[in-house]
Amino acid sequence: MATVIDVEAPGTRHCETTALAVLLRHEGIELSEPMLFGLGSGLAFIYWDGKNMGFPFLGGRVKPFELTRNLAGRLRLELQVQETTSPHRAWENAVAAIGAGRPLGLQLDSYHLDYFGSKVHFGGHVVAMYGYDDHDAYLVDTDQQGGTVTTSLTSLAAARAARGPMTAKHRSFTLVAPKDVPSPREVVVPAITACADAFLNPPIANLGHRGIEKAGKLVPTWLKRADDPQRDLPQAAMLMERAGTGGALFRNFYRDFLAECTGLLDSGHLRTGHGLYAEAAALWTEVAALVAQAGESADAQSLVKAGAVLGDLSRIEREAMQALSRLAE
């Protein structure tokens, strides 16, 4: 017998904001995906490489679950988080939430999910669970992964129990909204300025605008760095554009968030930031195309061009965040 809560797939593109959209809709809160991303101060940058890594990693958002914590704090939502090392207790936690009529978010490794098209380990994947029966769990994932989907209880257990980079201990969470949820207009300024401050003042050179500048210097070496350039470079480009980023390494989301904010606030600083992020988003898509081209043709010059564009992007995003940091003045 199935136990199911009535939900609908929001038609979104990033896993964590997809789960948040489902949980918030259940609480009567309807926000666009860019607004969820922006209110969660989700934009960031990291360039990471290490001895045990097959290829460098470019990330464009804050670490998994930080966006959820940020959003819950801004909207004064009650965020109830449960973690455990026990698979049995983890399942009981999920069943209890569904039994109480509340969908829940799950952080897990997407590699084990039956419906997932790309079999790559990613321990920071987030889905919304809204029901189950004797064999399957009923989930909501991104539009790209099918929206409302099912996966076997066995596969879900394996995904939740996985350990490795970015995984959590069977993490599940629910959101409860207060009666007086702040309007986006009340909280966009602190959300934007917090994001700008982190981006402009990174603790290490791999992060923020400094990380983009570093990437600009290192990307031209990627043909030599890659074990298999024809595989590694196109995959890196795909991750920037199509792996739940909304395109342009999450810059499309932030551009659209800032555009939505211009309808809430009359600010020259905001309009400047939006214009610069519109420019940055287009350039990130260009970088991805150049990286893919380099992998397909072994053309080092394409990586040189990508490095030069990244140098421009470091400056553009720094100037954008400097303008946005002044919103609180």
From TrEMBL:
Residue span(s) of domain Butirosin biosynthesis protein H N-terminal:
14-142
Which InterPro entries does the record match to this protein?
BtrH_N (IPR026935), DUF4872 (IPR032369)
What are the TM regions of this chain, as residue ranges?
none
What positions does the domain DUF4872 occupy?
155-324
Specify the superkingdom: Bacteria
Q: What is this protein called?
A: Lantibiotic ABC transporter
Q: Which organism is it from?
A: Actinomadura verrucosospora
Q: What lineage does UniProt assign to this protein's organism?
A: Bacteria, Bacillati, Actinomycetota, Actinomycetes, Streptosporangiales
